[in-house]
Specification:
Elements lengths: L7 E6 H7 L1 H10 L1 H19 L1 E7 L9 E6 L2 E5 L6 H13 L8 E5 L3 H9 L3 E3 L1 H19 L16 H11 L4
Parallel strand pairs: 1-2, 1-5, 2-4, 5-6
Antiparallel strand pairs: 3-4
Helix pairs in contact: 1-2, 2-3, 3-6
Length: 182
Amino acid sequence: MPRSSPQAVLLVDGYNVVGRWADLRQVCDRDGLEPARRQLIEALAGYSTFQGFDTQIVFDSQYRDTGSSREVITPNLSVCYTDFGQTADSYIEKACADFRYDLRKFQQRLIVATSDRAQQLTVVGYGAEWLSAERLGAEVEAITRRVQRQQKPSKKPSSRFLAHALDPDAQQRLMKLRFGKQ
């Protein structure tokens, strides 16, 4: 069965988010950039699936002498590394400019997650929606808690007897039947 079209495309300025989320900033300071990137990818994998977003995390490769690459993590999440000399901002701006003339814009939303003020103004100018890195973090946390609550097993009855699992009225009727009272 073909995959249905996602309700939105979410472009995430990866290093901007790493610098804005306190837990990722701590991981980056303590263990380096790679573990912080991995933690961001893990956080957005579940979020993207739950929201039904086609999420692309964009990282700069401007200081590495490598070509651009794209790594598909899940059907809803991919990681893009820009070309040498290209910033994540310019990659995102080009994607917004291209989307402006794309017919998908009538069925899909384009959301850009960054706290870079200049980037915010540019993407909104192209007709995309803007989401701050902090707001994205709050949404990811809220969805994670919601999923965890849904996955918790329901409370088991306090007793091993079936009669104790019945409501009080049913217990009374059962007791009357057992003692032969009408």
